[in-house]
Amino acid sequence: VIDINKVDMLQMTPSRMQLLLTGSSSLSCLKGLRTVMIGGEAVPESLVSELRKHTEAEIYNMYGPTETTVWSSVSLLDAKRPVDIGSAIANTRIYILDAHGRLKPVGVHGELCISGDGVARGYLGRRELTEQKFLPDPFFEGERMYRTGDLAKYLPDGRLQCLGRIDQQVKIRGYRIEPEEIEARILELENIKEAVVAVGENAGSGKYLCAYFVSDRKISSAELKQSLENKLPNYMIPSFFIQLDGLPLTPNGKVNRSALPKPTEGIKAEDGYEKPESEIERRLALIWENVLGIKGIGVNNDFFDVGGNSLLIIKLETELEKQGFFIDNASIFKYRTIRKMALFIQGDSVENASVQNAGSTAMPREEESDSEMHENTKIIKGIEPFNEIFYKNCFYNSAFPVAIHFGIGVMPFLANDILVYNYSHGKAKMKLSTDYIPREPITDIMERCGIRMDKCQYGGSITDNIEESIDRGKPVVLWVDCYYAPIRKDMYLKRHLEHTWLVYGYNKTKRIFNIIEHIHMENLNYEKQLISYDELTTSHNGFMENFFSGEDEELFPCCGFEFAQRDNTGHYTKDFKLNALNSRELVLHHLEGLKLFREDYRDTVLREETLKDSAEEFTQGINDIISSKRVERYKLVGMLGENSPVLDLIDAVIKSWTDIRRVVAKYMYSSVYRESAILSSIQKLEELCFLEEQYVNFLCGLDQKDSVLVKHH
Predict the structure, then answer these.
(1) CA–CA separation, 646 vs 624, rounded Å?
(2) 196 CB contacts (<8 Å, ≥6 apart)?
(3) Cα angle 489, 264, 269; round to 5
(4) Closest CA to 206 of 683, 668, 518, 528
(5) Average pLDDT, the chain
C-alpha cells in the first residue's frame, strides 16, 4: 500500500510499527518516506534504532491524550539523545506539578498536566470523573487544565521526558517501581525485539513482576536475569520471564495487557528442569508451591529465581515448621533449592548435589594445590569462611575468620557487647530494633588477644601493599565501595555501600586475589571468591573517594592482621559478667522501649486498617530482632555451655518473637484478619516483656554462684 500510493508521511502506534518491522518480508517501501509520526504509547529506543535502518525519514514522537484533542507535544527524535516527548505545540501549556498543584523544578518529576485550547470540557455523563481530572488552570484564570496521570519532568533544554504512568507505579516489598523503566532496560539487551513488564499478585507471594518478551532466538530466564543484574537493582528484576511469539494487541494497536498469560499457572520448563524424586523432595516442593503460589517447581530452581524474597523466607520457615522441618532462615538462605534443602534435612553432603544455578556468580573455591607456595602465588592456609552467625557489620564478619585462624575464636568479641532494645516512634512510624553496647573498642580487644593491626602501607600501590602483607603471613581486611565491585551484582553500578573483604591470597601471574565475601545483600553466606587486581583497586578507590574522610583512629582502610604474643583471653567470660552487672540499669532503661512498643503494638493490631499499614515493617523489624537474639544465644552457649539455665530464657524469648512474627506475617500474606490470633500475639508480647526482665536479672546475677542462679531462675 505504501509503495502503490507513494506514501511519504506515515503515522501509527509503536506496537503497529513493530509489527510492520518484524512481519514484512520487504521493508524497501519505507525508503520513500519523508516523515514518520509515532504516538499513542511509549516509544522504545530500540524501535527507533530499528526504524532508522530502513528509512532516512524524520521521525517524530507525538504525545497527547484524547482529552486534549490527541496531540499536545511533539519531538523530532535525534539519534544523539534519548527519546523524549519534546515541547508543547501552539496554544498549549504543559505543567509538571506535585500532589498539591505546585510547579516542580526542572529535572524533578511530577504529574504532567495540560492546559490550552485543546483541552476538552469533560467526560459526557460522568460528572465525578470530570471534576477529578479537569481542573481550573491555577496559573491562567478562566482556563481549564487536564491531569494526564503521566509521570514526567522538564529537561534543562526545555524538552519534556515522560517517565511512565503514575497509576502504574507499584510498591513491591517496600520499593516503588516503574515497570516502564524495567521494560527499557530489557529492550537494551541483545536480540530483544519487544518487551512489556506487568505486575501480578497471588495469594502465595503477593505482588510480583513478570516480563514478557519477543525474540528471534530462545533465551532462558537465567540468561536474562544475569544480564539485568548489571542494569537494575535486585528488587526491580522480574521474578518471571515469558517468551512470546508476539505481544497481544488491542484493535487500535496498543498492547493488550489483559491478554498476557499468567506465570502463576506453572513455571515454564527450561533446560535443566528436574522434577522432585524422593518423598522429602516432593513434600518440600508442595510447601514451596504453597508459599510462592506457583506450580511445577524443579528441585534445582533457586528460591529467589521463582518469586522468593527475604520476607517470603519468613513464610517458608513457618510452613516448613508446620510440616515438622525445623530450618531457620539462615539455613534457608544457604540451601536455596529443594534438592539442597532435602539433603540438608537428611544430613547428607550438600556439596554433592547437582544444582543448576545459572544466575550465581560465585567463583569456585581454589584447589588444594593452590594452597602451596608457588612463584608469584601465595595463599595463607587455614582461613575459612565463618557462617555460624552474622554479627553487627561486615568488618566483624571479615575479621572473624582471621581470629579463628589465629586460634582465638569469636567469643572475646561477642562477650564485649551487651544487647539492648531501641524504640523510636512517632506519628509516621514506629520501629523497634536492637543495638549493641560495647565495653571497650574492638582494637583494645584485638590487642589483648594478641592481634596486631597495621595500615598495610609498604610504599607501593594498594595491590603491592596487599601482596607484601600476605607474603608476611598477614591476611588483610580491605574497605571497598560495592558500587564498583562487579562481584556484587546487587550493588554494582546501582548503589554506593561501604563494605569489607577479607583478602588472604593472590596469584600475580593471573592478577587475581583470593577473598572471602558474600555475593548478595539477601544472601549472607560467605564463600571463597576470586577477584581481579583491577576490580579490587577500583572498589577500594571508590571507598576512599566516597566514604573515607580522614585517618580513623581505630580502623584503617586497609588492615593487615598479625598474631603476636597472646594475653590471657580466658577472662572474657568474667568481663562479660561484670559488664552485664554494671549495665543493668542501662539495659532496663532500654527495656522500657520494648514496653512502649507493646502498648503501641496493641493499639495498632487491634484495628485492621492500622495493622495493614504496619504489618510489613513489623515483620522486617521482628525478623532482625530474632537474628540478634540467635547471636545472643550463640554467645551464651560459647561462654556458659549448653546446659546453662539462661538458655531456657533466651529460647523462650526467641520463640515468643517467632510466634508474634508468624501472626503478623500470616496477616500480611493472607489479608485475613483473625482476631483470636491477634489477641494471642498481644498476650505473647506481654509475656515477652516479663521474660526479658527475667533475662536481664539473670544476666546481672552471673557473678554469683551457680546455685543462686538456678534458684533465681
Answers:
(1) 21
(2) 183, 211, 212, 213, 247, 255, 257, 260
(3) 70
(4) 668
(5) 83
Task: Quote the CA–CA distance of 173 and 522 in Å, as a whole number.
Answer: 13
Q: Terminal CA-to-CA distance of the chain, rounded, Å?
A: 91
Per the listing, cell 512502649 goes with: 596
The answer to whether 203 touches 293, Cβ cutoff 8 Å, is yes
CA 436 – CA 151 distance, rounded (Å): 43
Determine phi and psi for 188, rounding to 5 degrees: -75, -15
State residue 522's pLDDT score. Answer: 60
Residues of the chain with confidence (pLDDT) below 70:
23-25, 167-176, 202-206, 264-273, 310-311, 348-375, 426-429, 519-524, 550-555, 565-571, 701-713
The answer to whether the pTM exceeds 0.70 is no
Helix (H) / strand (E) element for 668: namely helix 646-670
| pLDDT at 77 (0 to 100) | 94
Closest CA to 417 of 447, 439, 401: 439
Written as nine digits, the cell of 4 is: 502503490
DSSP H helices in 406-532: 411-414, 442-449, 462-471
Q: Which of 193, 213, 108, 191 is nearest to 154 (CA)?
A: 108
Q: What are phi and psi of 557, to 5 degrees?
A: -60, -30
pLDDT, position 220: 85
DSSP 123-189: -TT-HHHHHHHEEE-SSSTT-EEEEEEEEEEE-TTS-EEEEEEGGG-EEETTEEE-HHHHHHHHHTS
- Evaluate the CA torsion angle 690, 692, 693, 697 in order and state its sign: positive
pLDDT of residue 550: 66
At 251, which amino acid appears?
P
Tell me which residue of 548, 453, 556, 540 sits closest to 501, measured CA to CA: 540
- 692-697, long-range: CB < 8 A, 24+ apart: 692/421, 692/591, 692/594, 692/653, 693/588, 693/591, 694/649, 695/646, 695/649, 695/650, 695/653, 696/584, 696/587, 696/588, 696/591
